[in-house]
Amino acid sequence: MPPFVTIAAYAPTGVGILGAGIVSEVFDERGPALPRFDFALCTDRPGQVRTDAGVPIMVEHGLDRLATADLVIALPWADFRTPPAPAVLDALVAAHERGGLVAGHCVGAFALAAAGLLDGRRATTHWRFAELLAGRYPHVTVEAEALYIDEGQIVTGAGAAAGFDLSLHLLRREYGAATANTIARDLVLPSHRDGGQAQYLAAPVPEDCGDDRLAEVLDWARAHLHEPLPVAELARRALMSRRSFARRFSAATGTTPHAWLVNLRLSSAEELLETTDLPVEEIAHRVGYGSAAVLREQFVRRRGVPPRSYRRAFTRAPERL
Fold first, then answer.
1. Separation of alpha carbons 103 and 109, rounded Å
2. 212: exposed, middle or buried (C-beta count within 10 Å: 0-12, 13-18, 19+)?
């Protein structure tokens, strides 16, 4: 199926103003070099909708917008403990049945659960309400630590600013790393904050660790990605012992130096696969792997597909064998 273009975000009374702002910003128009989305907020009755901050917003579209959107997003709202109206639940089910992509941000997952869309699936929500979701919907496997859970046609995300992670993940999945990274840079966000509400996933890629000395070392590592980059060398450049470096690195970034490097190498490989016609062997060397076989092993293990399959899905240039 082609990537999503039309997006409808359901904004009921009491909608989270942060959640509505996040999706509106991520899927905003950014010029001819990036995808152009047809994005709209929709609600039960178009007009002024009160937000959780008490500030009303104007929502021009009704539930009919859910019937045609490629991507439907259930936004968080203040009264999430009460299920949405039957018409809303029917619209969510209909979107799923016709093959649309359905996502729930934060406690928006409660709307998907009420519609029965999460039964037999893994899901996440704001950590504070994970037990409530699991208790109310026992057929849902709630993973409270995750930033987002991708179950194919159903995707759920954690609370608050994790809406950025959910949205960027969907962009990365459907449009590729280069598009997601470009939009993330425009928003001044980490391009791929793998990790969770308690670092659920394995390899965050922080853009800025908040520590000047470590930041210099990370910048140097990015510029020398083709080199082996042992942790001992990074520690030496940071003027620390290896143990102190690992401890300080973990405190600043939420991950280990090895995990950070692995994901940085793979993210760089993704962009090269998408935007160049370099052979996979050359890409492997440029991102610090000794051979295409090693890159393939890491790519399959952590991205789920081999490099050439990824290139076919997101290529912008023909592959030179």
1. 8
2. exposed
H helix runs in 224-289, sequence order = 231-237, 242-253, 257-275, 280-286
Q: Residue for token digits 């425009």?
A: 186
Q: Do 167 and 23 touch, CB atoms closer than 8 A?
A: yes
First CA to last CA distance, the chain = 27
Give the Cβ contact number of residue 202 at 10 Å.
Answer: 14
Report residue 160's pLDDT band, with 50, 70 and 90 as the boundaries.
confident
Q: In one letter, which amino acid is 296?
A: R
Sequence-separated (6 or more) residues with CB below 8 Å from residue 254: 195, 199, 204, 206
Strands (E), 88-182: 101-105, 122-123, 141-142, 148-150, 154-157
- Nearest CA to 117 among 149, 86, 154? 154
CA distance 42 to 64: 8
Nearest-angstrom CA–CA distance, 102 and 153: 6
Rounded Cα–Cα distance for residues 26 and 174 (Å): 14
180-199 b/e (C-beta count within 10 Å ≥ 16 → b): bbbbbeebebbbbbbbbbeb
Residue 109's CB is within 10 A of a number of other CB atoms, namely: 33
Name the pTM for this structure. Answer: 0.70
Structural tokens at position 274: 């998408």
Residue 172 has pLDDT above 50, yes or no: yes
Comparing CA positions, the residue from 63, 166, 64, 73 lying closest to residue 117 is 73
pLDDT in tens, 195-213: 444 433 333 344 445 567 8
Q: Which amino acid is at 271?
A: E
Residues recorded for the chain: 321
d(CA 179, CA 181): 5
